[in-house]
Amino acid sequence: MSEIVTFGETMLRLSPPDQRRLEETAELEVRAAGAESNVAIAAQRLGSASATWTSKLPDSPLGRRVVSELEGYGIDTDIVWSEEGRQGTYYLEHGGKPRGTNVIYDRSDAAVTTAETAELDTGLIEDADLFFTTGITPALSETLRETTAELLETAAENGTKTAFDLNYRAKLWSPEEADDCLRELFPSIDVLVVAARDARNVLGLEGEARELADELAGTFGFETVIVTRGAEGALAWNDGEVVEQPSYETETLDPIGTGDAFSGAFFARRLEGNGVETALEYAAATAALKRTIPGDVALVTREEVEAVVAEDEGGISR
Fold first, then answer.
1. What is residue 240's DSSP assignment?
2. Ordered strands of the 102-106 beta sheet
3. Other C-beta atoms within 10 Å of 224: how many?
4. Does the chain have fewer CB atoms within 10 Å around its N or its C terminus?
C-alpha cells in the first residue's frame, strides 16, 4: 500500500540544450515530465511515505521509457497499458528575457485521454492516506473529466484525504470551461492548492491572498486552502488559521515543476505529522531548490531542504 497516490498524464519533455532554438538544434534532451508524477517523486524524496503514480500509457518504447524513468526515482507505478493512443510529448525552448521560455504541446490522442475509472485499480486510492491530482487532467478530455470526478469521489467516500492543484493551463482550456468543471469537483476535495492569479482569472474571485483563501474555504468547505503568490511566497488557510510563508531567494535555471515540488514537499511533511507552518517552510524551500535544477523533477534531498530553511529561520508570520 502506498500512502500517496497520484493520477494524471506524464509526458516526455524534449528540449534543446544550452538555450538553443528548436528550429536549429541538432539534439534534444529527453525527460519524463508530469505534474502528478512530479508531486509523487517530491513527496517520496522528502518524507517517509511511499508514493504511487497511476495512469494509462501506450504499450510502446516511449510509454515504457516514462515508467522506467519514474521508477528510477523511487516511486511505484500502476499502469493501464494500451494498444491504442500515443505517448504525449512537449517541447521546451528555454530563453531569457525578452525571448522567454516557450512550451509546445504535442499530446493530442494520448492514451491517457481514454482512461476510465473501471480500468484503474481504485483499491490503491481507497487504501491510501492521500490522493492527489490536478486541473490539468480533466482538461485533457471529456473522459478524463468524468474519471477525475469519479476518482475524487471514490477517495472521499473511503476516507482518503483528497488534494488538488488547480494548475490552470490556458493552452488546454478557457477560464470559463475550467471554472465550470472545477466547481463540480470541489465538493470532493479536502486540500486545494491554487495560484492567486488563477483564483482571480479562472474562478472569478477578488482580493488579496487571505481574502481569496477565506472565500474559497467558506464557499466550498475546504479543510485547507493554499494560495501561492510566486516571488511573494504562499499563504495557507487551515481550519480557520492563516499562515504566511515568504519565498526563499533562488537563482532560476529551470522554473518548470516548481509548483509540483512545492506541493510534494508540503504533503510529505503533513503526512509525517508536521503542522502547516513547518510544511509551508519545507514547500517553499523545495520550490526554491527546484528552480536551480534542470528538468521537471525536484531532485533534492531532505538535508538540502533543511539547510535552506535553517538559513532563514523566523520567516513565517500570522
1. T
2. 29-33, 11-15, 89-93, 102-106
3. 22
4. C
How many other CB atoms are there within 10 angstroms of residue 159's CB atom? Answer: 10
Torsion angle, CA of 269/275/277/279, rounded to 10 degrees?
10
Q: Is 303 helix (H, G, I), strand (E, B) or coil?
A: helix
Cis amide prior to 255 (ω within 30 degrees) = no
Q: Which amino acid is at 145?
A: R
> Annotated catalytic, 296?
no
* pLDDT tens digits for range 251-301: 988 999 999 999 999 999 999 999 999 999 999 999 999 999 999 999 999
DSSP state of 247: P
pLDDT digits (tens, 9 = 90+) for 59-73: 999 999 999 999 999
Q: Taking a C-beta distance cutoff of 8 angstroms, is the pair 286, 46 a contact?
A: yes
Distance from C-alpha of 214 to C-alpha of 205, rounded to nearest angstrom? 11
Single out the residue of 52, 70, 62 nearest to residue 5, CA to CA. 52
With cell 525552448, the residue in question is: 93
Of 19-23, 58-62, 72-76, minimum mean pLDDT range = 19-23
Q: Which of 190, 260, 296, 312 is catalytic?
A: 260
Place of cell 509546445: 104
Q: Is 243 exposed, middle or buried (0-12, 13-18, 19+ CB in 10 A)?
A: buried
> In angstroms, rounded to a whole number, what is the distance separating the alpha carbons of residues 126 and 80?
18
Which CATH architecture is the domain 4-8+35-79+116-311 placed in? 3-Layer(aba) Sandwich (3.40)
Q: Are strands 234-238 and 241-245 parallel, antiparallel or unpaired?
A: antiparallel
| Residues near 174 by beta carbon (within 8 Å), at least 6 away in sequence | none
